[in-house]
């Protein structure tokens, strides 16, 4: 291939094997072009920018040295995988990232053989890589064969318990396994915790000086078992690592820290590891999140996630908002409640901004706890806080709370501890797709004895639910609300404490009653207007509670209507199932009630705009209208038009 720096090289790289024909100098150029292409693509699609920019050189080096897809390269979270996608045959579709029918914003097995393991939740990569390593050694038959197993995990993700469970197991099994710790001293927010402090200590002083010299002198200075007589290198590395590192104590060889933006360090180190490694090895790589794009490097979150933007100015193209986000209403309301009650404390698992708790942390720093990416600990820590007489609000995204489920059951619910679960991103979330959809929380919370479960129909209702949770000391309580803007309703001065287990009548009609749980209420009201124009006037009620159910309201509705339809933005097994159970128990079905339950379909819905996802889910106003016509035996919208 040409060796002139003015000849574009990325165009000639269609699969990683093409990198192997390039000189190291040319790989530098590929990295520069890859960075520019990543910035250009994300400027068009929006998405996760900073993490990918931080691993451009690492991505090039890994693909130049290892033999993917036979070697299994596993990106933790995989929000940093856009450069990897560009190098692995997906460049022609990179501007479809996070859009319906386009590339996922994360690695996905069904998308490419170069994505051996899907992710989006953090800290799974070492476990998965260890699984591949063991499968390789025991004659497993993965597509494309089984070679090296390489996990790339960030410093934020490394703090999670699951990563240490995997290290513990790997150190014991002693299989050849490569873990690359990509340390950029950032999570979404600045990382917190003792591990973060420890990692900083590992390279305090002059981090790369000796190692750079060593790497440039090729492989001769790498530690055992990478080279015979590697005494000097070993001493050097040990010295840099302030004695035996935590990773060595866990049974890993430790290599580093090395400059993750310097291909002259990365390439020889990875080549040597590939040639010589025997057991588990951890390579500690230092990088900069947002590297090489000034607006990202400057941003508070280092460009972690961005809307579409102007490449020259870095200015983001955000749609103007018409109403406050649910997240901000939650954050502000909790700050207000906390001003009246100094027992209120708040817990987030590495998502202070995402959950709105940044407001709380600013106002009450000593009462707000960012536990890092550690949802399991966050839940049990909240249980401890509650047992200690405080009023913890454990604010987590629905999808991440899944990771703390046993803790919700075992540590909170069984002990009837009054932990308040603020469940954000409940329902479909759009571009992040199926991994981030908050589909299951109603089902997994409402089946727990003693758990109160609420869903806000709008932002004023959310304020009431925060107040209700603050006042509820009898046991655990949860309230859910979606991603994005509220409806734009007037907000009260302060939230009212709701009566536990009581819904509200929204619109009195006849024949059919629609019982809504959560924010689909707006679509229900829209459908009701359309139906009224057709001569059918539904009754509409807002259940507010999935647990305990408002039995009086429900039984009243079924007594006075020929049909009942429930609707929620959640999977099968949630609110509608609880209503069905009640109706079955009360023998209501024996009387011929027509009952339907509108829930998310029993599929994982891929990324798309929220509107498109609701269409796929069949939870829009027109779907509700159709459902009403169907249950009443009236011609459907389509039939009528035909
Ligand atoms: C279990 C889980 N909790 C929270 C998140 C949200 N999240 C996505 S990326 C991220 C930060 C990851 O930091 P790090 O691993 O250091 O990667 P970096 O972005 O710095 O490259 C967080 C908290 C997640 N994906 N999974
Ligand atoms: C990768 C990840 O898990 C987060 O960055 C997530 O994409 C944030 O989602 P929100 O944009 O809804 O906060
Ligand atoms: Mg990081």
From TrEMBL:
Its EC number is 2.2.1.7. SUPFAM superfamilies: Thiamin diphosphate-binding fold (THDP-binding), TK C-terminal domain-like. Signal peptide: none annotated. Binds 1 Mg(2+) ion per subunit. Binds 1 thiamine pyrophosphate per subunit. Residues 324-489 form the Transketolase-like pyrimidine-binding domain. It catalyses: D-glyceraldehyde 3-phosphate + pyruvate + H(+) = 1-deoxy-D-xylulose 5-phosphate + CO2. One of its GO terms (biological process) is thiamine biosynthetic process. Pathway: Metabolic intermediate biosynthesis; 1-deoxy-D-xylulose 5-phosphate biosynthesis; 1-deoxy-D-xylulose 5-phosphate from D-glyceraldehyde 3-phosphate and pyruvate: step 1/1. Mg(2+) binds at residues 155, 184. Its cofactor is Mg(2+); thiamine diphosphate. The keyword Metal-binding applies. Thiamine diphosphate binds at residues 79, 120-122, 156-157, 184, 293, 375. Keywords: Isoprene biosynthesis, Magnesium, Metal-binding, Thiamine biosynthesis, Thiamine pyrophosphate, Transferase. Belongs to the transketolase family. DXPS subfamily. Catalyzes the acyloin condensation reaction between C atoms 2 and 3 of pyruvate and glyceraldehyde 3-phosphate to yield 1-deoxy-D-xylulose-5-phosphate (DXP). This is 1-deoxy-D-xylulose-5-phosphate synthase. It comes from Thalassovita mangrovi. The lineage of its organism: Bacteria, Pseudomonadati, Pseudomonadota, Alphaproteobacteria, Rhodobacterales.
